[in-house]
Each structure stands twice: as C-alpha cells, then as structure tokens.
Amino acid sequence: MRILGIDGSPRKEGNTYAFLNTALDRAAELGAETHYVWLGDKNLRGCRGCYSCVEAKRCVVEDDFAPIFAEMMEADGILLGSPVYHASMTAELKAVLDRSGFSGRWAGNAMKDTDENYQWSNCILSGKVVAPITVARRTGQTLAFAEILMWAACNDGIIVGNAYWNMGMAGKGGAIDAENDTEGLGIMRGLAERMVHTIEKLNP
Question: What is the per-residue pLDDT for 117?
Fold first, then answer.
C-alpha cells in the first residue's frame, strides 16, 4: 500500500506540512509506504489548454510536473494538502490537479467530433483513494476543500470520509503553530486510519 501526500504550500515545512505529515506518519504506523512531495520548490506551470495530451497521452509541458504525476499514478491513496489563500487552494496545487486531471483523462479517451457524445472510460487516476487537507487561520476553508473534492469526483477517485472535516486551524499572524490545534491533528490521524482501512478493503 502506497500513500502519497502532496503539499501545495509555498512555505517549506509550514502548517500544511504539519497536518499532512501527521496523517502520513499515522498511515506509516499502520503499515503503509508513504511518500511526501512539496510543491514549493518545483517549477510548475498551469494547464495551457493546448490539447497536445490528446495525441501524446501525456502532458507535453516540460517542467517538474511529470515526476509528480508518476508518483500519483503509483499511489493507492493520495492526500492533497493546501493552505487556504482567498478561499481557494494554492496555485501550485491547482496546476498539478488541472494538468493531472486533463492529461489523465485523455490518456484513456479519444477526442470526439463536435456532433458526437462522450462515453467516458476510465482515466489514469480511476480508483485512487483521495482526501483533501486544508489549513487556514480561521475561515475560507469550505471552498478550497470543495475544490479538491470536486477534482477527485471528476477524476473517478474514491473519496474517503472522516468523522469530521479534514481542516486544520493555524497560522495567526503568519505563525507556524499547527501543534496548537490538537483536535485538528487528531482529525488527521483519523483520516489516515480511514484511508488505510479503505485501501485494504479495496485490495483484499
């Protein structure tokens, strides 16, 4: 079992890192192989809508996206972490999700003529167990959380639930103080337990 954590924060080892790695550490305790990717030091561009992936069956933009997408393809579970900036996920995470969703869909489907209907088959991300982790000082998390859920649903992911929303409260005045949100850290451990349990049920 391999669980990937993607940290969309531009800040190294910030609050998103703390909440995300709390979940990854708990998953590792339960026997999962875990891997953490920080997007803050990556060269990433947004999807440019060129549709070159329709023929190439991969994203053709040359930057740091391809190794990240390879990690996503290999993972059984994906934790997507982002601080909340103006009620949204970060640009770094948005770039990865847009491009992985777009190129992943065209890898398994063909372009139709304008007078034809699509009957979508599986995409590369089909069956991945996915969960969001969002972090904010106070509020604005709901929309960012929903953005990630919408991405998972559209890309045939299996969204794992939890006993509460996977949201951390931290960062007043720019502080790195996730350790003070003990309830949030407990929520992340519970999320990891549910993700591991779900993957085990899917792969008996």
Answer: 80
